Amino acid sequence: MNFFQEKAVTSSDKTFFQLREEIVEGHISAGSKLSEVELSTKYEVSRAVVREAINRLEACNIVERKANVGARVVTLTSEGLLELYQIREALEGMAARLAAQNMPDAEINQLSSLLKGQQDEVKQRNVYYQEAGDLDFHYRIIVGSQNQQLITMLSNGIYHLARMYRVQLGMTGPRVTTAYDEHIHIVRAIANRDGELAEILMRRHIQYSKNNIAVKLSNMK
Amino acid sequence: MNFFQEKAVTSSDKTFFQLREEIVEGHISAGSKLSEVELSTKYEVSRAVVREAINRLEACNIVERKANVGARVVTLTSEGLLELYQIREALEGMAARLAAQNMPDAEINQLSSLLKGQQDEVKQRNVYYQEAGDLDFHYRIIVGSQNQQLITMLSNGIYHLARMYRVQLGMTGPRVTTAYDEHIHIVRAIANRDGELAEILMRRHIQYSKNNIAVKLSNMK
DNA sequence: AACAAATAAATTGTCGACAATCTTATTATT
DNA sequence: AATAATAAGATTGTCGACAATTTATTTGTT
Q1: What is the pTM of this model?
Q2: Residue B13 contacts A, CB cutoff 8 Å
Q3: Fewest C-beta atoms under 10 Å: which of A93, A187, B30, B73?
Q4: Which residues, in sequence order, are bridge partners of residue A73?
Q5: Does domain B78-220 have CATH number 1.20.120.530?
């Protein structure tokens, strides 16, 4: 999962990563309460480190906390999804534009050949790709923007929330191949140093995947 | 200062607000170390609450922390400023567009009349306005976007960082009146429900104020 | 004197206990 | 029986102490 390599040096780090994974992957269900004592016995650490982990999750918008009451995992709503993808569209659209300006040729070539390497697998067997491949792609472009604050924002917060939505709505399905083609076009625009086009294509790309998820969400109710 | 009313219910909240203010206002200088014991004696609370406050500041990108070493106030750089305003441009541009779609008429009128009320003071005496007035303006438009995640992002993190830059670079000066006129035009676009124009104007407005600050920053070195 | 190793000091990370607050259950009153 | 007041239970917030790690100082060796 982690391209942005996060090493857990402290015990609190480890607990934070574990908790985040369990929530994002849906093993701890949305809306459920996070009891400090319960979690501290479960992970065999003190309440203090659980507390710190929960605080960090709150900063990521993965849990909500009320003073003297406790923390709950956020509940997924279609409004929340829309809001999240609006933000992604704005930020990653910008990232694509900046990447067209700033991304080193070496990184662009690397990304380009990475995509080519996936081509056969994607076109023939329709499996895979959506999860790790998509995330990897987006992350590389964010890094290519060379805006450090943007990198932090997305890799600390937004991506995990977005993944939580996708995972819990059971994202598979037929979007795989068209997404691949969109990726190809975006990289081409970046390689041509056409920031304007790169932004437009990236925004479209995110809109599509938003619609894809929104359909599933409306089917669930 | 706080339009987004933040009530300190817990002791940790209060410490967090105090610390943030001291840093943003420059009483604790950029780049300086934050000792947990030192601060706990200063604010007369336990180390645990100081720790929690520092963790929150870290989540806001106001301090940086290394495990087993400690936390330092971030250092202001021209690159950091550029990055921050790039993000603001994207997010607040979007907010202006969304506000043109979603902001209730009542709120628009309220904002409009607020600006008119400031007109005389701004045009005659060239003083004031930049600080609280500008922040209030931007915040109202963010709220008008009705994107909750966006509101959280900006009012928890970005605005305080942006303010830190402005305060510590001694923002006063002749930008006051032109900023006022820009605000007027943005509100007009929103009132006309012209999202496209509102976004363009907002982006320009932020670019201008970025340039204004960047000049000061380059003069300092 | 210069460098390396060992020791000491200081700082952060973790823990268990107590205090304050909220939630639930019980009792009292109408 | 229904509602309000009170008490009991459970959960979070805060604290001081100890452990682990880093940094500074001292000591030892060449």
Answers
A1: 0.92
A2: yes
A3: B30
A4: A63
A5: yes
Report whether A133 contacts A32 (CB < 8 A). no
Q: What is the CA B154 to C1' C23 distance in angstroms?
A: 34
| CA of A16, C1' of D14: distance in angstroms | 22
Q: Give the span between the Cα atoms of B81 and B206, in whole angstroms.
A: 12
> What residue has its CA nearest to the C1' of C12?
B68
What is the residue type of B157? Answer: G
To probe the interface with A, which of B87, B88, B101, B199 has the most A CB atoms within 10 Å?
B87
Q: Which residues of A touch B87 (CB under 8 A)?
A: 91, 94, 147, 149-150, 153
Could you tell me the two tokens for B112?
A: 């409009």
Residue with tokens 């849906």: A26
Q: Is the pLDDT of residue B180 over 90?
A: no
Q: Which two tokens stand for residue A40?
A: 């501290």
B 83-112 → A contacts, CB under 8 A? 83-84, 86-87, 89-91, 93-94, 98
Domain limits, CATH 1.10.10.10, in chain B: 11-73
Q: What would the pLDDT profile of A175-198 be if each residue is shown by its tens digit?
A: 666 888 999 999 999 999 999 999
Query: Whole-angstrom Cα distance, residue A60 to residue A6?
Result: 15
Q: In chain B, where does the domain assigned CATH 1.20.120.530 lie?
A: 78-220
Q: Mention the CATH class of domain B11-73.
A: mainly alpha
Sequence-distant (6+) residues with CB within 8 A of B195 are: B96, B97, B98, B99, B100, B101, B189
**pLDDT-based confidence at residue A111 (cuts at 50, 70, 90):** very high
- Residues across chain B: 221
